[in-house]
Amino acid sequence: MKMVVGISGASGAIYGVRTVEALYRLGVEVHLVISETARKTIEYETDYRFQDVYRMASEVYENRDLGAAISSGSFKVKGMIVAPCSIKTLAGIANSFNNELLTRAADVQLKERRKLVLLLRETPLHLGHIQHMMNVTQMGGVILPPVPSFYHLPKTIDDIVNQSVQKALDQFDLEANLFTRWSGME
């Protein structure tokens, strides 16, 4: 299986890193595009270097490379996860503004009717943000803000991150066993 992962420059870089890690452990072929700002955010917010993330990907593309394989619908993949997804990236996707590979690859998923999952990172939201989310949803995308649940009794930030990443992977029927699922109240 092939998946595209996009990491934008929004806060929450660990969501993208953890997504790549989980897919790598599952043996999924990861095609990765990281925005320039995301490279800095990864190193600022996590203990990872962006090169560490690159090593877990099968293929890494420059965000300005609009001729990359993932910019074409003829390059078949299962879908794409953008984690985290900045409002800038959301706006680009919602308006088919494909000036960078990350937004172009997302646009390809939508036009090919493949799954696109956006871990949107921003609050509070104004009407423009909500309208962009509505547009992407109407085009077939899934807006999945990393909103933690607490029924699995998280003890660490990693527990919270893992639950959101697993929810994104669930959209592709991928089980990485990143958190304990709800089984009812005892």
UniProtKB/TrEMBL annotation:
Kindly report, in one word, the top-level EC class recorded for this enzyme.
Answer: transferase
> Recorded GO terms, molecular function?
carboxy-lyase activity; flavin prenyltransferase activity
Residues annotated as binding FMN: G9, A10, S11, S35, S86, I87, K88, T89, R121
Q: Which UniProt keywords apply?
A: Flavoprotein, FMN, Prenyltransferase, Transferase
Q: What positions belong to coiled-coil segments?
A: none
Quote the Gene3D superfamilies the UniProt record gives.
Flavin prenyltransferase-like (3.40.50.1950)
EC number(s): the record gives 2.5.1.129
Q: Which reaction does it catalyse?
A: dimethylallyl phosphate + FMNH2 = prenylated FMNH2 + phosphate
Q: Which domain of life is it from?
A: Bacteria
Which sites bind dimethylallyl phosphate?
Y151, K167
Tell me where in this chain the Flavoprotein domain is found: 1-171
Per the entry, what this protein does is: Flavin prenyltransferase that catalyzes the synthesis of the prenylated FMN cofactor (prenyl-FMN) for 4-hydroxy-3-polyprenylbenzoic acid decarboxylase UbiD. The prenyltransferase is metal-independent and links a dimethylallyl moiety from dimethylallyl monophosphate (DMAP) to the flavin N5 and C6 atoms of FMN.
For this chain, the family text in UniProt reads: Belongs to the UbiX/PAD1 family.
Q: What is this protein called?
A: Flavin prenyltransferase UbiX
Q: Which organism is it from?
A: Neobacillus bataviensis
Gene behind this protein: ubiX
